[in-house]
């Protein structure tokens, strides 16, 4: 597994405002959207392309376009939805799948309650978006499902990561074609499995605590 921490002043600036507990939900959603676009720019450096011949207003030339099968973007519900628009803005021709996952707050294990994506992902580059790589359980379960369906190149895009979660993914997904792109790897997890210093519960901060 490969992990890439995006070191850029704009990334650090937006992440700092996301961390601030005074940042309200509308601002949090907007900044998360902007930040994921910056992360996606780095995450798609190796997106697969093919050559194409075109005519400019001046002459004929050769360019590139995204190859088929098209990339698949998979947000992890619910907080991953807040990152979806930033991804498809950068990859407007990508297809979108969904995975609904919930963490048992006693065992901290992730359980899948809904999926909506192709059964066969052979040859597909898949971009999984989830704000937090905390314990690693949710992303490990999600990525295993994608690989089971044939995905051979998976990139997880997270706003923040904890070293414990990175370690779990490196152990559980050893030898798998997985890359993690994040704005920062923080200090640790606390006793409640929240990232420290972190930014709190990303889903609650995006959408409130209703339900």
What would the keywords be for this entry?
211 residues, alpha/beta, Rossmann fold, eight-stranded mixed sheet, two-stranded antiparallel ribbon, 6 helices, 14 strands, 30% strand, globular, GTP-binding, EC 2.4.2.9, uracil phosphoribosyltransferase activity
Give a verbal description of the structure.
With 211 residues, the chain is of the alpha/beta class. It has a single domain (2-48, 66-202), classed as 3-Layer(aba) Sandwich (Rossmann fold), CATH 3.40.50.2020. The chain is 32% helix and 30% strand. The chain has six helices and 14 strands. β6 (98-103) and β7 (110-116) form a beta hairpin. The longest helix has 19 residues, at 25-43. It is globular, with a radius of gyration of 18 Å. Residues 5-209 form the Phosphoribosyltransferase domain.
The low-pLDDT segments are none
- Structure classification: alpha/beta
In CATH terms, what is the fold-level topology? Rossmann fold
DSSP, total strands: 14
Number of structural domains: 1
Share of helical residues? 25-40%
Order of helices and strands: EHHEEEHEEEEEHEEHEEEH
Biggest pleated-sheet summary: 8 strands, mixed
CATH class bucket: Alpha Beta
Radius of gyration: 18 Å
The CATH architecture designation is 3-Layer(aba) Sandwich
- Shape call: globular
Query: How many H/I helices?
Result: 6
Amino-to-carboxy terminus distance: 36 Å
Average predicted local confidence, pLDDT: 90
Strand proportion, as a percent range, falls in 25-35%
